[in-house]
């Protein structure tokens, strides 16, 4: 099957936070004074223009299917600046009708009235970094908000008419009990968001928590929390569709689904990653932007804004595809593997057979899907597709 151009999304990185959290390894920087928000939006637009110029034909006739403002803390940017970016981006690239536009929000950064502005700007989905509803845990995680403030922020978005809301929760927190994890899920469900992301807290290298590890629940306890929370979420109408993602019917995140299905995306902003399929050359190219906000601002729109680029080598394509697709509970049609990687399915036939023998993959000749056992040992399953 020939390589086909997949859907194209737009990721926009906003690199500042009020304060760096001790567990976080995202490209985020605690603010000192007032960051140059307006100049950053100008740099984003120059970046977009330069990417359009660089990628030229590979972007032709490909509307943007979703936009995601990620961070850092995008909600530090005033609605007027988000509106300016979206208006200008739409003038440069067509957006599909009903394009999903998500903005990540720290509940500690949103004063009254902010959400009306985001909605008017074209944002139609808000993702809140809640993490926990236990005030002691929030303190331990270095968060800048209380549980009451988090609940008020979610209600204020709902009152403004934003009807598509995700809450990020983390579990396996320092000294957390199973009951504590379930209580966080219950408080999240009580707010009736359309989507809940439920991440296991990871000790990431080069973070304060990696240098001074807090006492975390062991692997078996963490697994028990994941299973109990998954069941509680299912009872409340949130179906798991990816390792960490749960949604009400019809409310899966289009932007993340595109990543997991090995779609394409432009990455605009400091440290943002992009992936683009060039059907004319048969290459799948990854490109990322320089990480530090100051360097990025200085390089606005110039070649120096590019941190690096690399075509995905043919012998890594199958692994890269699985790294994304096998996270999806329902899996993907095997035909998609061929269309999005340009590789024949025969190339992975032996590995598929081994995965099925081990009970990691369902025995379906047309679909690629993990069994519950495969989900538990997902890293091994994905690793089996390494060159
Ligand atoms: C960019 S942040 C979301 C928005 C905003 N920055 C905030 O934290 O409120 C993305 C999410 O990743 C998750 N996350 C960050 N660091 C993590 C870690 N070390 N382990 C697990 N999840 C993590 C958190 O749930 C966080 O809300
Ligand atoms: S607010 Fe979010 S992005 Fe910023 S440091 Fe904390 S978890 Fe990371």
TrEMBL record:
Residues 3-239 form the Radical SAM core domain. The keyword Metal-binding applies. It comes from the Bacteria. Probably acts as a heme chaperone, transferring heme to an unknown acceptor. Binds one molecule of heme per monomer, possibly covalently. Binds 1 [4Fe-4S] cluster. The cluster is coordinated with 3 cysteines and an exchangeable S-adenosyl-L-methionine. The lineage of its organism: Bacteria, Pseudomonadati, Pseudomonadota, Gammaproteobacteria, Lysobacterales. PANTHER family: COPROPORPHYRINIGEN III OXIDASE, RADICAL S-ADENOSYL METHIONINE DOMAIN-CONTAINING PROTEIN 1, MITOCHONDRIAL. Belongs to the anaerobic coproporphyrinogen-III oxidase family. HemW subfamily. Keywords: 4Fe-4S, Chaperone, Cytoplasm, Heme, Iron, Iron-sulfur, Metal-binding, S-adenosyl-L-methionine. The keyword Cytoplasm applies. Its cofactor is [4Fe-4S] cluster. This is Heme chaperone HemW. It is found in: Cytoplasm. InterPro entries: Aldolase_TIM, Coproporphyrinogen-III_oxidase, Elp3/MiaA/NifB-like_rSAM, HemN_C, HemW-like, rSAM, rSAM_sf.
């Amino acid at each position: 099957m020939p390589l086909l151009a997949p859907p194209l999304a737009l990721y926009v990185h906003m690199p500042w936070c009020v304060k760096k959290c001790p567990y976080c390894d995202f490209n985020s920087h605690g603010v000192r004074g007032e960051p140059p928000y307006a100049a950053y939006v100008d740099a984003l637009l120059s970046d977009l223009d330069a990417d359009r110029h660089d990628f030229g034909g590979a972007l032709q006739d490909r509307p943007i299917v979703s936009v995601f403002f990620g961070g850092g803390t995008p909600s530090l940017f005033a609605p007027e600046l988000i509106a300016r970016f979206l208006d200008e981006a739409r003038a440069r690239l067509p957006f599909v009708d009903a394009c999903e536009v998500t903005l990540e929000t720290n509940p500690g950064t949103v004063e009254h009235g902010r959400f009306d502005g985001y909605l008017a700007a074209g944002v139609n989905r808000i993702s809140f970094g809640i993490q926990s509803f236990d005030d002691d845990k929030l303190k331990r995680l270095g968060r800048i908000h209380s549980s009451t403030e988090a609940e008020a922020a979610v209600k204020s978005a709902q009152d403004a008419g934003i009807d598509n809301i995700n809450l990020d929760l983390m579990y396996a927190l320092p000294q957390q009990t199973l009951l504590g994890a379930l209580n966080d899920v219950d408080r999240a469900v009580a707010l009736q968001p359309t989507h809940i992301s439920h991440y296991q807290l990871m000790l990431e290298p080069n973070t304060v928590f990696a240098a001074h590890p807090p006492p975390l629940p062991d692997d078996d306890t963490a697994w028990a929390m994941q299973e109990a929370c998954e069941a509680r979420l299912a009872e409340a109408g949130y179906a798991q569709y990816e390792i960490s993602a749960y949604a009400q019917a019809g409310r899966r995140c289009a932007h993340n689904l595109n990543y997991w299905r090995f779609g394409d995306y432009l990455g605009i902003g400091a440290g943002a990653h992009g992936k683009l399929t060039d059907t004319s050359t048969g290459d799948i190219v990854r490109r990322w932007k320089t990480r530090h906000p100051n360097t990025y601002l200085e390089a606005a729109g110039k070649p120096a804004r590019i941190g690096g680029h690399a075509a995905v080598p043919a012998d890594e394509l199958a692994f890269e595809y699985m790294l994304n697709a096998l996270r999806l509970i329902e899996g993907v049609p095997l035909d998609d593997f061929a269309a999005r990687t340009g590789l024949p399915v025969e190339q992975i036939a032996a590995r598929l057979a081994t995965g099925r023998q081990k009970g990691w993959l369902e025995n379906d000749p047309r679909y690629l899907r993990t069994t519950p056992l495969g989900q538990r040992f997902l890293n091994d399953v994905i690793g089996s597709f390494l060159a």
